[in-house]
Inverse folding.
């Protein structure tokens, strides 16, 4: 009888030990699951970071592909590339041109070739903006390089009695950081651009014809 009682006690102890061991295993499973979940969260964060790191070229590609709009900074006006006239027989036709660093920030802007020099588009802060554009024969847009920087030029060379070049220097945020003007006026002698009555100015200062020619060569290469 005593032998049976001892055997029963031993059996109960073994059962308790087995159950205790299972309990410990059960407690470890949530820790493993939490670690796996933490690893998944880290992976998802890495993916989000990559997705948000869109480059300027990728934004410009998205505009060219018709996926996003280009915005004017000072108004709520915006447009898709498909909103621009694209008939080659139309003077107002636009087409995709070169990519050039026009604001000296190390990233290229997109030139949309078109009337009066076209439109210059800048990608920044996750969107595409109009940096500058041509605005008629009195403000035809182009660009030039001097003093180690790229300047956007608005020129008026089509009107009798004047020739004007306005130079604008932009920074990478679309802000104007410098402006210069080179001007020739010959209102009284429209058929003699460099006559004795012609007035040459650089900024607000009157200059000689020789100084005008030197500045024009330096700033425009002509």
């Amino acid at each position: 009888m005593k032998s049976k009682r001892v055997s029963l006690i031993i059996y109960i102890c073994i059962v308790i030990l087995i159950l205790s061991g299972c309990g410990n295993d059960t407690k470890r499973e949530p820790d493993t699951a939490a670690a796996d979940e933490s690893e998944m969260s880290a992976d998802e964060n890495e993916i989000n970071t990559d997705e948000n790191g869109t480059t300027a070229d990728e934004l410009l590609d998205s505009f060219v592909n018709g996926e996003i709009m280009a915005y004017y900074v000072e108004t709520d006006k915006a447009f898709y590339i498909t909103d621009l006239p694209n008939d080659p027989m139309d003077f107002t036709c636009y087409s995709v041109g070169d990519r050039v660093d026009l604001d000296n920030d190390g990233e290229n802007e997109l030139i949309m070739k078109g009337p009066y020099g076209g439109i210059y588009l800048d990608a920044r802060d996750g969107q595409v903006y109009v940096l500058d554009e041509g605005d008629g024969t009195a403000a035809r847009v182009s660009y030039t390089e001097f003093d180690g920087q790229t300047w956007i030029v608005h020129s008026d060379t089509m009107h009798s009695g004047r020739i004007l070049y306005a130079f604008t220097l932009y920074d990478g945020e679309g802000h104007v950081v410098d402006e210069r003007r080179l001007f020739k006026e010959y209102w009284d002698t429209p058929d003699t651009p460099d006559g004795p009555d012609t007035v040459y100015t650089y900024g607000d200062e009157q200059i000689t014809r020789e100084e005008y020619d030197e500045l024009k060569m330096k700033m425009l290469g002509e």
